[in-house]
Amino acid sequence: MTLTKRVIPCLDVANGRVVKGLNFKSIKDAGDPVLLAEKYSNEGADELVFLDITASEENREIIKSLVSKVAMVINIPFTVGGGVKTLQHARDILLNGADKVAINTGAVKNPKIITELMDLFGRQCIVVAVDVKRNYNIAGQKNVFTDNDKKFWFEVFIYGGKKETGIDAIEWAKKMESLGAGEILLTSIDMDGTKDGYDIDLTREIVNSVSIPVVASGGCGKPEDMIDVFKKTDVEAALAASIFHYETHSVNRVKKLIKETKNLKLSSLLIIK
User: Is 18 domain-assigned?
Assistant: First the structure.
């Protein structure tokens, strides 16, 4: 098991506001991104993820001014994604204060951009976001799993979870690593917003398929869910939104509980900008 575990709040942003939904739908307002970012940084979050969740669907660039405002109030590593399709998009995000660039739809549409981004900015800056949903039509699929007597495979979705791709998530993660990705941000659409815990099977399969860090996302409803995914998989980080946005638990409270759990060691990583 990896010893260092990271706790990462996520800001899903639409129309300049942090939002949260269920299975990528039923979106509700959750607050101001700048205020929440500052709060999480002060509470001891190891990193922060900012995703402009409608940028790709609306075929526009990310709101760079908002990224810059968030970067100014935090002192932790900062990953930003949404609508990244070109090297210039990525450059703009990094110039506005991000440490890493996350790309999902843009990578599916043009996989070679991952290598181009790696060559220009370095592997450590490139995060491939992979949004995944179970597909129970298994005809012709290589990686098939069973849960409650139902067979399925893990399919990659794009455009904020609205469009299926026919791409197997396990094979896609391997390909992204080979092309230059430095990290996988793995989100279970099935578990997103349910607060029923992470998709352990999905997380384990992806983690075991690649050698780069994987961040688990989708389904966290309590600190025990993070402890569970850390114990049952070798995932290096867990991302959460609802439990932090609605103040069910503070970041430092979650980290304290995880730290008290045997065999888990939290990251003390801190970058001063």
Answer: yes
Whether 39 maps to a domain, the answer reads: yes
Q: Among 227-231, 263-267, 269-273, which is the least confidently predicted range?
A: 269-273
131 is annotated as an active-site residue: yes
Question: Which pLDDT tens digit goes with each residue over 30-45?
Answer: 789 999 999 999 999 9
Evaluate whether residue 245 is within a structural domain: yes
The CATH number linked to 253 is 3.20.20.70
Residue 32's CB: how many other CB atoms inside 10 A?
15
Q: How confident is the model at residue 252 (pLDDT cuts 50, 70, 90)?
A: very high
Question: Residue 12 catalytic?
Answer: yes
Rounded CA separation 21/40 (Å): 20
Residues in the chain: 273
Predicted model pTM? 0.90
In whole angstroms, what is the distance from residue 217 CA to residue 159 CA?
17
Which one of the listed residues 99, 131, 190, 225 is annotated catalytic?
131
Number of domains in the chain: 1
